[in-house]
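Re: the 1459-residue chain
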Amino acid sequence: MLFLRKGHPSILCNMDALHLLSWNVQGLGGQAFRRVKGLVRSDLGTSNIGTIDILFLQEHHLCRDRIQKYGSILPGRWTHFWVPAFGPNSRQAGLCIALRQHLQSIILSAGTVMNKRAQFLIIKIGCHKVGLMNIYAPNSASARASFWSSLVEYAGLADCWVVGGDFNMIEDASDRLGGTTTTISGGEAKCWDSFSFAFGLLDLWKVQSFSRIQGSLNFSRSDGSVVSATLSRLDRFYASSFFWDAGGSLGIIPGSTISDHDPLKLNVTFHKKRYSKQWRIPTSLLSDDSHRMSIVQIWSNYNWTDDCLFLRNMVDAILDTKNFFINIVSASVYRYNSEIANLRRALAALQKLLERNPTSSMLLSDLQQVKRSLKEKQQAHSNFFFYRNAARWSQKQDRVNKEFFNQFKRKYKPLSITSLKRLDGSYTSDESEMRGIVSDYYHQLLSATTFTTDSLYKKQDILVTIQRKITNEMASHLIQPFTSQEVLSATKSLGKDVCPGKDGIGVVFYLHYWDFLGPILTRATNLIFSTGNMPAEWKEGIIYMIPKANMQYDEVSKWRPITLLNDIYKIVAKTIAIRLRSMLPSIIHDTQSGFVQDRSIFDNIFLFWEMVALAQQNKQQMAVLLLDFEKAYDKVEWDFLEAVLSRLGFPNAWINGVSALYRQASSSVLFAGGYGPIFPISRSVRQGCPLAPSLFILYGEALASYLRSSSAGIKGIALPIAQSVVLDVEFADDTALYVDGEIGNLGQVQNALQNFSEATGASLNWNKSVGVWVGATPHPDWYPGSTFRWLNQGEPIRYLGCLVGIDLKSEAMLSPLLLSIKHKLLYWDAQQLSFAGRVVVANSVLLASMWFIASVWLFSRSAIMKVQSLIRNFLWGGKNGSRTIAKVAWKVLTQPKIHGGLGLIDPLIQSRALLVKFVIRGLLPGSEAWKGMFLKQLMKLSPKTGGVWSPSLKWLFLNDVQTPRRELASNRFLLGIIRAWDGIKSFLVKEKPSTWDAWLNQPLIGNSLFRDNVGKVLGLRTHLAWGKLDNGPASSVNTWIRFQQMPQADRLAHLQTIHGAKIMMAAISDSYSSLVANLEPIQDHFWFGCFINDILLAVKGISPNGCIFYFEVLDNNRMQPQDFDFSYFQNVRNAPVRVMGKMGKKWLLDPYPSSAHTCDMMWLYSKDPVARLIWDPGGWFWTYSLGEQIIKVPFFQYSVKLGRSLLTSMNVMAPAAQKHWTNWGVSTLQLKTYWRWIWSFKGPSKFILFRWLLVHAALPVGQMLKGNVAQNLRQCGFCYATSETTKHALWSCPLAQQIWNKVLSLFLTINVGCLFSWGAAVWGILHSSLLLYEADDIQEAMTVQNRRLISVTPFQQPRKQMRSVQIWKTVSTITLWVLWKCRCSRLYDAAKFDIPEVMFEIWETLLTVVRGQYDNISGSPENSHKKRMKLLHLWRKVPLFVMTNQRPQWNYHLPWTLP
């Protein structure tokens, strides 16, 4: 078997050392695994575990299923290559090679020899292909002879080899002491010679260049006899000459307590280097409150009242804190290691004495006693950490959190550079000289430029173009003292995992002790800001170099420098940045979209597409220049930056406060395993400073203002909106220029950029810049740089992370995406992921690859299907994208969890939900160029029929209007947005008006409030006739309705000329009546209308006490109190009218009272164009149902998650198994309750997903297997029944019933009343006459009851019953999970079904889950204590723990009485 993988070039190929450990563990299951993991963590010492790069294991005795359980042997991040055990019960042999994940990039291939007694791994070290072979040789000489011969053919796979393991042979007499010494001979000797000659091997134990590790033994195996000891060296390392020249050390580590073999350690040294590590406070120490008083005492020793000494005292207090924690760490490590070291020394001394006197019974007895003491000490230590970490991990496993991804993160050790290029082009390998080269480079780069007189004049020309933006109110707010809340918010926003600076004091320390450090930090921040002085120690940074993709590592200029700053510095900078952030939108021009609130990187990408489409439509010649500024952040001159801030209007006090962070700062370089000299820096905004992005975009305002000024003389591109011009667009330092394509104009661009570079010290790299030409003619012959190029038509280029170009095809956007997903699949396929872990990776890693591109480009359905196919195959276990059978339909997987789905993100729906954001942001107020372009394009696309519809955005909200597509053919980007919008706008509803003004502004067309006599909404097509006759726009009620006293004849004549007026009047009348019916009527008055000739003149109101009030009737159906002459109303007709309510100071009158004569409502033509009418998108709401509740979300509060939910609800698909559920008594309410419970279960996600697969009938039981499958795989894994169903495997099988018998006995002892059945086990419900799930469940339950396997007891009180249900759900879930694991192990690996072992695993898993819930409770001390007590009260009758000093002592001993 051979596994091949493409080797990735990596700097780690030039590694300095290789550390290997070989160990025959003689079994790695259950308790043994725990001891091995703890032993590797502690027995080899916490300082040594970091020096193991590759681990060889022999005889792990793990079958395939157990490998998945014990897949991670070592703490940290490792990649494992397993060879399962073989032989009877799959409990013999078994091999594993484990590598640290930072070595994964140098793996070329891996494979297993056919007899499964050897495995190999080919890696690349420098230019050499190095083979690693792990061996567990047979015991008999004849089998070994055949084995050595079979390995010869593999010698050519590598240039040199390291072969290690258990060779089970004695090569010469020096390999054994005591007993019978039998060396290899005869046929085996010939085969061994052929093998060692082919591989070029020599025993490293006998190579002089390999010294002995101090304290190591001479023999790796002891037979453990107390009568006569036999010591052997069966475990060895052989290597080729490549390793002989390198040299190193080799030794047998004493103290193995789980095997009669001791581990063998090999250190190969290529280059002797020691890497300096940044010290930081261990977070575990902060959670220990026993150190709190010491920290308080340290900070209390200083005087905090004197402002002159305040900052210096803080420097000293931080240093004392660092030293305190260093001493704590050293002492705790020393205590444990000293005890273990003493026992190891005693063990090593006894073994050496035994070498001289192997028959001494006293020495053998002492040896066994020391081994027992060492074993007990190590086991207690390892068990403590194992159970604690297992409990904590149970709550975080396979969930979207940093702990999950940290398992698989490729963590690289400090970069190892073997050589570096000098300025003269030659190379050096000397570490000290390399550090000097790097330090000199950054010292020169970060030193201020000396400007000429001409440059100073150009600087002034640029500064005068900058306009003042800071108002007096803004300036006053900027220099106000910072509050404690501002400093706290800034500290929290940095994040607890931010890398600390040189002092090692992280943000988590300041947050943990904020109660007494908060006032000190606030005062320090204000002192620094007001005085303009910061201690030099806090401004000292460490420059850490990060490699860029596809770069030459030997050139210093190609690296990206990140400055690690002290967290106290970052707190001050972040506090200033947060206060400035709210003002940036009014300071920074709208062409800059980086680091400004409510602006997005997508604005620039959108503008690119729109500008290209505009130029193509207008047949205009346009040049788009994508500029690259070299080391933009590092070349910011402080003098020029302060001048820019002053021109913008920042007060001098604020500028001085900011300068305190940069003036007199210093840095050193961390490179080649050490620190370079400290050097001062006099320019740059340091990457790593929280204030740097804001300062840089303020600095960039100088370039933008200068390019737009008349002095630059650059002609931009005119837009057909408000006479605006687009010239420059920026995202931080990524600048794009849209200029006229004339050759003279391009020369002006070059001259302006050259002037800016000379005046400011910036460096524009024309050789990395690219031009995009739009026009019918070829691009001009203009090349400002030797390698500057113009983009060809159809050629893509990456701009701000997205591929752009001219006339790009969809394939150009799709191919890189598919390649990215496939590349990630290569990595994630190699990981041992559960189904739950695959769901997390699919949602958060694989699908996330496309969201950025999908935000600006609508993929076709066929393209989405290709992505969906890759995700589906990965989810169901396919390797490298290969097809596999899906157990559940894709549409069910993408349903919300509350509806029985997995909540997997559907890429088709997500891509549309992302694009809708542009419509929402486009309608928000703003002067950005892209918004104007967007609105202009929409107006062009609005439907026009017979002059009825004027350009407006109203049509966006109308569901019955279809957008024409012919004008979108050349603008695929806008076409994608409109298609996405058409699919979601049906969820928009207009808020019903609550005031008369709101009523008058209601649109007539497309408004669900207005329907004709057959119930249709008034629209362009169905009611076009009356709109045409008016020759006016169909707009709002306010445009058409108006009260006016007209002669009867004129009114009738006017109504006769308007065809369809009655339909319109009836529709509005009915809609208005239903609208105002929701208003609260005035019931404490009697109202009468005063009519003359059917014209309503006034309204008379009579209160309950007899008072009479008169109201004048105004326009718009309003009335207000008036004093009338009573004689005026003597000849009027009084009739009842209806007053609907009070609106402000006026009253709203119903124009259509049922008991009064109809008031005339005339439809008159309004000459106002639709574009001038009020249309507020904020009056619309997104609506969706949440259970029985209808949720309304304001239009502008749209989110991608909301859009995804809306679109998903259009295509809700019930799971295929739901019909089966409902047929057997599972109600819809029970289903919702069940889904809510399993997704809120506080336990490992694998349990949740297992239950999900169980109820979806997706477990691969024998009855479900199709195709050409071996008959034994169709049988029950326990009793080998011929027809295996899910119920049989997990419930009805006799062996499964024995497990349930033990589990149910626990419930009898804690007095839980219940009716146990298969349905109850599946759905977590104890007793329900409706819940049958299978037709014979009740009868079966009663039958089993007679055999004392099922308990039926009286129901309990509701509160007690709830406790019982929670316990039952947890226990039944764990039992089902363990039964399924045992079934798979027995079926596929012929593992033995051991009831005591199964019961212990159930108990141990239950204890781990409950303890994990206890340990992961968070919150305030009071709330967390209450939650913990509540949890312990729930499980008080289950013997999981014993309370000691108000803390639980967890019981890991099985409580059941086992046969």
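The first strand starts at residue 2 and ends at 4.
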